[in-house]
Amino acid sequence: MSDETFHLGAEVRSSDGRDVGELVHVLVGPDYRLRALVVKENTSFSGHGFAPRSWLVNDEFIVPKDAVKSATSDRIELSLSAADVRLLPPYLGYREKSETTTEVLSDTAGPLLASPELPRWLEQFANKRADELEIDGGENVMLRNTGRKLGTVKDVLFDGDQLVGVVLQPEGWFRDEVILPRRFLERSDDLALFASIDEADLKRLKPFRPSE
Fold it and tell me: What does the pLDDT read at residue 100?
């Protein structure tokens, strides 16, 4: 995969030419090598357009790295047919959590698919390994455990299947996007990506230029 490049928002197509969705997350291992792509299905491909209030139907699925045939800055071609893509595992799942009987009864009093909010007796989880780092477009990037927000993720930078950094939009107005090298990435959770970086290093981050 030395010629491939991956960019958040890229169109994803099946081997039989179907536009199945777009790249929304990447999953990398502790060695920063790409393990999988997470693709958000188009409503026409998923069938969600016929049931717009069915919030519990997952529309993101996991594509293993080996299923990528080729990739450019704006398109990813899969080696899987549309039928095979529909068999790929969902990225998000739902499971019951411990709640009181009163809470459960109040949540089940109405139709399950009538609200965009999860009932209190369910929790959402991502189908990824504990050692995998998830990187999303628009994700907050926080400085260690200080609570300070550095900015948001605009894109990912790969050399083949090796993550080399993320494109960071710093906090504040009229600030240029910069490259945050992977060595500063520490961990992620459901809410943010965390970086371990000194103030001096922050000031030396390289501005991002698309041609680079």
Answer: 53
Alpha-carbon torsion (70, 76, 82, 84), positive or negative: positive
Q: Is 55 exposed, middle or buried (0-12, 13-18, 19+ CB in 10 A)?
A: middle
Reported pTM? 0.78
DSSP string across 42-101: PHHHHSGGG-TT-TTS--EEEEEGGGEEEE-SSEEEESS-HHHHTTSPBSEEEEE----H
Q: Under DSSP, is residue 200 helix (H, G, I), strand (E, B) or coil?
A: helix
Read off the tokens for 28: 């990398």
Cα angle for residues 199, 205, 209 (degrees, 5° grid) = 160
Looking at 3.30.1330.20, 3.90.1150.10, 3.40.1380.10, 2.30.30.240, the CATH number of the domain 11-126 comes to 2.30.30.240
Q: Supply the pLDDT for residue 203.
A: 83
Give whole-number Cα distances, 7 to 32, 91, 163, in Å: 16, 19, 11
Cα 167 versus chain centre, distance: 14
Alpha helices in the chain, H assignment, sequence order: 43-46, 82-85, 101-107, 199-202
Compute the average pLDDT of residues 84-102.
Answer: 76
